[in-house]
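Why does this matter for the project? Reviewers at the last site visit asked to see concrete outputs rather than summary tables. In response, this paragraph embeds two records directly. Each consists of the residue sequence and, immediately after it, the corresponding structure tokens. Nothing has been edited or filtered.
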Amino acid sequence: MRIVVIGATGNVGTSVLDALGRDDAVTSILGIARRLPAASFARTEFAAADVTRDDLVPLLRGADCVIHLAWLIQPSHDETALRRTNVDGSQRAFEAVVSAGVPALVVASSVGAYSPRADVRPVDESWPTLGNQASWYSRHKAEVERRLDLLEAEQPDLRVVRLRPAITTKRESASGQRRLFAGPFLPTTLLRPGWIPFVPDVPGLSLQLVHADDVGDAYRRAAVSGARGAFNIAAEPLLDPTAIASALGSRTLRMSASVLRGAARATWHARIQPTSPDWIDLALGAPVLDPTRARSELGWDPVRGAEETLLEVVAGIRERAGRATPPLEP
């Protein structure tokens, strides 16, 4: 198989390339990114292209499957620029897949595409994907889902897969994700067990984490199989503030959502940190994912648990870990 990965050099993209490079069914890989990496990957060549403006069709011709991952988190103060890549760029990629005659498309959706939860009972892939309207990220993911609905209706012979992973991270993405979400003022010396002063204990806050390498394996399985449809991708256990504090050797500090949101808003508007306050709303409303379908139909099973992944990325931030690609370099 020849597989093209659009958005190949970030947190998930590098793990997808690693997973594909280990699969004997995959004979060649083309990684597409705006900026070419110094790192090399097995069976992989790279091409520079931007989904917002470049002609993707010549790059996709001859592919057996396209994996579309391209997505922007920053600049968070310019939603127009984000939408240009996330929604319009995705639409351009989908149109290029059709024009190039590619038979299969695997797309990065997200837990963020789902409508807010009713409670903490896990939901399967039938939960509505109308997004959380308080969050630009969620609105964009939900709109891409609607574009995929239309694509499937218009192109019934095209095999379309949507992966909806939980929060995804790994050690090598630590420096890149720090830039995206925390900024330069995070005191990394405190990011060690026993040194973190507290974890905010906000009612209703809990996190599902999954290791990027496990997500990369899910993309590999979706690409090389005949799978269709949506798949939740998540690891256990669900981490509430008490579990996070215990893992980090810290304590919890009771805090209302409005206080946490207000702190995020003030520091974001002051450009002290880059995470807009609507991420708080998304975290509080995101449903708990049930990955049963991925386990049964893809044969997917995460190697690492959520707590292990948390500790790995915290250590990675402290140690300025990264990889030789533009999004991940320290």
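We now turn to the second protein, recorded in exactly the same manner.
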Amino acid sequence: MSQVILNFQLACDNASGIPEKRDFIRWLKGALLLFRDYYEVTIRLVNEDEIHKLNMTYRGKNRPTNILSFKFESTSKVNLHFLGDLVICSQIVKREAQKQKKAIKAHWAHIVIHGSLHLLGYNHLLENEALVMESLETEIMQKFGYPDPYLGR
């Protein structure tokens, strides 16, 4: 049975404009179930202060960001289904959608899909990696009826 278990944490001051839990599950399924039929992921929605601190601590970047992905690394040989954590700054996601003139729900979907692919090991540090990852993101977004998130950049 195909399943995504979502541990959802709301740790930001303003919850307005945040998609429903079922939206997050749908987007996770769109990205993750391409690879395996069962996953568990935590999504934590935070304020800019928290994501800024996490970005500094784990990436050495002294600024807030829209999303951080923390892939779970198991030290045992047990096949665990927990994939990792996505920490998303709702304030930044909302601001980016406005600035880029994107539908807010489409931008949320893109951020979740982007982070999910990072949990699966995809990256965009090198140009060829970025092309593969962006192509997958676009394909998944279009399955949901959303436009290519990279158009117009």
